[in-house]
Amino acid sequence: MAKKVVATLKKEGGVKYAKVIKAVKNPATGAYTFKEEIVLQDEVQSALKN
Q1: How far is the C-alpha of 50 from the C-alpha of 39, rounded, in Å?
Q2: What pTM was computed for the model?
């Protein structure tokens, strides 16, 4: 089922998405956690700024 969904997202003229993974440091412990988002390719730079 997942393969069909991926195939429909890659159609020509369709909307393109990107998965953004950011490392966020916890100031209290110093440990890193990872935050994942799926955003439009045009909005990747703005997602990384936040």
Answers
A1: 13
A2: 0.58
What are the residue boundaries of the structural domains of the chain, listed by start? 2-49
User: Per residue in 4-40, pLDDT tens?
Assistant: 445 555 556 667 888 998 989 999 999 999 999 888 8
**Residue partners of 2: CB distance under 8 A and separation at least 6:** none
Residue 11: DSSP 8-state: S
Phi, psi of 49 (to 5 degrees): -70, -30
> What are the CA-CA distances from residue 6 to residues 3, 12, 20, 32 (Å)?
5, 13, 17, 30
